[in-house]
Design brief:
Layout: H1 3-22, H2 27-32, H3 37-47, H4 52-59, H5 76-83
Helix pairs in contact: 1-3, 1-4
């Protein structure tokens, strides 16, 4: 894999972690669930995401509502499932 692609994947994985933390999702639990398959799927969704700026705006607090917009985030359903778990 070329270095630019590796950098892209690493950046998107970091952004996923930041988003999960911002939304109050237990990152350790999220990473372990389904032997890592949930995190792997979410990471891949982030790599292919067409709206990375919307995610960055939410992480950086430029968007006031800490919710994931269904039309923008390919991980919306996954993340919401973990937000509702106590």
């Amino acid at each position: 894999m070329s270095r630019p692609m590796v950098n892209h994947v690493e950046q998107r994985e970091r952004r996923l972690d930041q988003l999960l933390e911002r939304l109050g999702v237990n990152l350790s639990r999220f990473r372990r669930d389904a032997s890592g398959a949930t995190y792997e799927r979410a990471s891949w969704n982030c790599v292919r995401c067409r709206h990375p700026d919307a995610c960055r705006d939410l992480i950086e607090g430029r968007v006031l509502m800490p919710k994931v917009a269904p039309g923008l985030c390919p991980n919306c359903e996954i993340i919401h499932a973990y937000m509702s778990v106590t």
